[in-house]
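lol ok so funny story. i was supposed to be doing the assay writeup but got distracted and ended up predicting the structure for this chain instead. priorities right. anyway since i did it might as well share w the group, maybe its usefull for someone
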Amino acid sequence: MFNTRVSEMLGIEYPIICGGFGTISQVELAAAVSNAGGFGIIASTYHRTPEALREVIKKIKSLTDKPFGVNISLFPSVKPLPNREFIEVIIEEGVRAVEASGHRAPDEFVSLLKEGNVILIHKSATVRHALKGQEIGADMVAIVGMENGGATGMEDVGTLVLVPVLADAARVPVIAGGGFADGRGLVAALALGAEGIVMGTRFMATKECSINRKYKEWLVRATERDTTLVMRSIQNTHRVLKNKASEELLELEAKGASFEEMLHILGGDSTRKVATDGDLEVGLAYAGEATGLTHDIPTVKELINRIVSEAQSITKRLHKLAE
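and the output, tada:
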């Protein structure tokens, strides 16, 4: 059922991936996605030390016997991340895949991952960076359009154009991200030449996601017009929900503020307060334009089953139209 190179290589039932994103990519969510037939990913950055990551990997193994992955962040960080040590743990623990995302290609880790028999998914926001990932040895490339929550890149190109352009140029499987939330999106991605989708925002509004209930309800209330782009002034554009923190940040950027002057908003503590405490105005709240397609808070299994069922109905309808 919607069997692609992505689902075959990852060993999953459906080509639906829950991308790794900061404090939100917790064990329970990733395990639920994998158990429901998709591919769950946990974020290494939140755990900070290799041994802490190892404990989390062991925990997810206790919750699922299905394949899962770990995100490695190559974005700028106030404190250097021990990514090589993270990867060594990933290999030792037999994790199926690494999703690498950030401002550069993971050149220095490719040989290590290959030796450890770990699949490398290189995620980027531009075609040229995706093809760079393919060139250095990525097994799959994921590309996210400007609809994406979190990092969107600097070029403001939408998913509808990025995916087919990359699919035409790539030899390895393409995964589409940015604006996906339902069965219509899955069918559209496959039609554009992708072999899977990566979702973030829609998975946030599920029962298994660890974010505060107030945050989830905010995602359900929000429309496609309720997000904004911040951090463009420091060449690190991200999409977030509109709130007091994002408004203040945009005002500081307009005045030419330095990174240090914006750090009280950009720091992880304020973001965690939004996610864990439900203090919705104090920090940045990452979300994509898929908020406009988010109308309830189901279980992960209910959501994935719904997406697959919708996609099947759509393909049957399209088949009849083509007869």
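Residues 5-211 form a domain with the TIM Barrel fold (CATH 3.20.20.70). The mean pLDDT is 94.
back to the writeup now i swear
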